[in-house]
Design goal:
With 335 residues, this protein is an alpha/beta fold. It is built from 13 helices and eleven strands. The strands form two sheets. The chain has a six-stranded mixed beta sheet with strand order 8-7-6-9-11-10, sandwiched between helices. Strands 3-2-1-4-5 form a five-stranded mixed beta sheet. It is globular and about 60 Å long.
Amino acid sequence: MARSIRAAFDLGSGGMKLVVAEVTQTPAGARIHEVLLGEEHPVKLALDLEDSQNGELSEEIRALGLSTLQNLVKKARELGCQEDTPMPGVATAVFRKAKNGEAFLSTLQRETGVRLQVVSQQEEARLGFQTAVAEVESTTSQVPHEMVVWDSGGGSFQIVRDRTDASGGGASADTYLGGFAVAVATRRLVEEIQGRDFAGQPTPNPVSLAHTDALIEKLRASMPRPTPKWPHSAPKVYAIGNANSIFFLARDVLNKTQFTSSMVKGAIEQLIGQDDTTLAAKWCTHPRSDPPSLLLPKLCLLYAVMTELGVIQVEFVQAIGSCAGILRSSEYYRD
């Protein structure tokens, strides 16, 4: 089959992502043969919205978002994505929540030519599942039956189990959807637990063990009810994300790609009591690292979800947003 070059954009609550790849179309969907480019640039939309007094994204973050997307589009064109070829992208939680999210998305579409749409959290879950399938297929010969996938971003998290086969994530899928993530966890730690103004003091560091325990309990109590039993029944949950994900951080601190909740609790204990400078020097060293203010909220969120749902073990699968899932989904490329 002839190969074609496709681009996929994922405009998340914490960053803007692009993957350009060579794909072929199959009856079960597109198959990714070679990734030509994969990039993720931090644009902290969710944190900006948490700091907003009027429920809108600020002019500064919108300008950064536009320039970031324009730069990514330029790179996609240079790699062979033609002007007449659809370049789809999805926009997630923060665009659903911000009062000016729809208007901002319209500006991005008009100025860049990317075919953008705000997707539901259910669709986020499906794309996350398809992304995990693509990444697991690239390293192993077989995708596990009843695979469970966890995607956690800057504004929400999704856990999905497909009960038929690896082409799924559709009507036969079980989903558990959380309407908060790292941005909310950070604000709650600063304001509700430490009693400080998030706008004036956006970093919680240094954080005590008592404060992390209190945050974990608040996050567990905030999770949607009823909680499902099926995440506990899976021998492991595949967790997708890139360098700024909660899962990547756990991998870095633990130096392992598979971890249990008790191991994550140990990672939390390694980071408590340290200021921003100390944390940044050790854990925020790659060029596009998140700030150290997010480190402990990330690990607390990870631990809270794992313990509340009884997740036995997480296996980290590195992925750039849900771009691979978009690339596999031919409906995004129809004229």
